[in-house]
Specification:
The protein has about 240 residues and is an alpha/beta fold. It is built from 9 helices and 9 strands. Strand 2, helix 2 and strand 3 form a beta-alpha-beta unit.
């Protein structure tokens, strides 16, 4: 039997793409979301297309007090957990609307981190499992254009790195995925450079390969590694004069 795959953020384009990539390999899928009944069509499509068991599970990632009970109620227990939860927010609005900024930070760091902590502990106790977190290149350096979202993703990246270091000798592998720009509903309407933009299916396949090859940190489009290396190398005195 293939490991069951839990998709946290099953309504997202990246989450669904990862579900299809792994279902095609024979993995049973557990999709989660708020108001998860709206994913019935996606569940049917996955099950029919890949001939695997697919189940739907209700969860609010920001209701952290319920995360332990949620994990305990999953049967079978997932061997692979992919966290695709997140919210892009609107930088200009979030600079003024602090309640909105809080939601962006919680959706990209607090909720995902606590969920991953719950599954990390369960995997460590049994000595096996894989955790995959979708972070962002936006977390590699704070930029004026998206520093609220980027700060939350930077926290999530650091959190995943710490989990990887902690769990390395306990049979649990942690993968950090940095997709860069992705053509999804979340980025619809944005003017994205074609060379730097991935399609959801490519991200799903990159996640599948990273799990199989036990990669630690991946940039879905390798050019992003170079782009962010250059951006991080700009001295602060010069960087603060830019509008990247």
């Amino acid at each position: 039997m293939k490991d069951t795959v839990l998709i946290l953020g099953g309504r997202s384009d990246i989450g669904l793409a990862a579900a299809h990539a792994l279902a095609a390999e024979g993995h049973p899928i557990q999709l989660t979301a708020r108001h998860v009944a709206g994913l019935e069509a996606a569940r049917t499509d996955l099950a029919l297309r890949h001939s695997v068991e697919v189940s739907l599970h209700e969860i609010d990632a920001l209701a952290t007090a319920g995360h332990e009970d949620f994990a305990a109620g999953l049967h079978p227990e997932p061997g692979i957990v992919i966290c695709a939860i997140g919210a892009l927010g609107e930088q200009v609005r979030d600079e003024e609307d602090h309640a909105s900024a809080v939601q962006v930070m919680r959706a990209n760091f607090e909720g995902p981190a606590i969920l991953m902590a719950v599954f990390a502990n369960r995997m460590a106790a049994r000595g096996s499992g894989t955790l995959v977190g979708i972070s962002s290149v936006a977390g590699d350096r704070g930029r004026a254009s998206n520093y609220i979202y980027g700060a939350a993703k930077a926290g999530f990246t650091a959190y995943l790195s710490g989990l990887r270091n902690r769990l390395a000798k306990q049979g649990v592998h942690v993968v950090t995925v940095k997709p860069g720009f992705v053509a999804t509903r979340m980025t619809q309407g944005l003017d994205l450079p074609e060379r730097l933009t991935a399609q959801p299916d490519a991200v799903g396949q990159a996640i599948r390969r990273a799990i199989q090859n036990k990669r630690n940190v991946i940039y879905v489009k390798p050019i992003w590694w170079l782009v962010m290396r250059v951006i991080k190398a700009i001295p602060e005195a010069i960087f603060k004069k830019t509008s990247i």
